[in-house]
Amino acid sequence: MSDEQTEAGGQGETRARLLCAAERLYAEHGISAVSNRQISKEAGLGNNYAVGIHFGSHVELIREILTMHNRRLDEYRSAALTSLGYISDLRDWLRCMVAPHVEYLYALGVPCHFARFCVQVTTDPTVSELVLHAGVVDSKPLAETVAGLYRVLPMMPTDVLDARSAFTRHLLLHSLADVERTLNDTAGSPLEVREQVDIFVDALVGIWLAPITSET
């Protein structure tokens, strides 16, 4: 192996250690509470400036974590889209949206921190847009799923549509974080993937088909 290959391999391993350490620390403590120095220490690195050297800033580090997971998630999303029949209703599209995230979360094994990491990112105003961008903007399968869902929705005012979209996003993010905690708890008894997906889909159908009291 050449010196260049050895150096590249070493850099790749260091970046992976930083990504893993940052994801866990951010998930457990929040974005603003974790310094680059802490991440370097958690990764077992003596250089306190490792994050800056390898990623430039904590924002780019977070972006890289999201990109890494989103790339893997897209495989699950594409498979879900492929499984849809020619005639798909609201429940089908919601399942297509929910199932990839639940399946991926279970596939990560334990301990896992990704779902709680996403919650922390979305609640930090300095980086919250990164989650949206890494999802709908950067993910073609997810964008197709959202478009398909919107096509089968009943007519509703724009402000109601926007509100229910936000409800859907928040319910999934925070509920997946709760599922992740259960998975990480060795004393917990997590549901099967299909059962967990059914619970989410049933709740989301209720949100989207709920009567509209005030027309605007």
Keywords:
216 residues, mainly alpha, Arc Repressor Mutant, subunit A, 10 helices, disordered N terminus
Using only C-alpha atoms, the radius of gyration works out to 19 Å
Q: Helical segment tally?
A: 10
Return residue spans where pLDDT drops below 50 for at least 5 consecutive residues. Answer: 1-9
Order of helices and strands: HHHHHHHHHH
Total beta strands: 0
Secondary structure: helix percent: over 70%
Structural class: mainly alpha
Distance from N terminus to C terminus (CA atoms, Å) equals 67 Å
Mean pLDDT figure:
89
Main sheet, how many strands, which sense, barrel? none
Strand residue percentage: under 5%
Please describe what this structure looks like.
By secondary structure, the chain is mainly alpha-helical. It has helices at 3-29, 36-42, 50-55, 58-83, 90-107, 114-122, 129-137, 140-152, 158-184, 193-209. It has 2 domains: 1-56, Orthogonal Bundle (Arc Repressor Mutant, subunit A); 63-209. The chain is elongated and about 55 Å long. Residues 1-9 have low confidence and may be disordered.
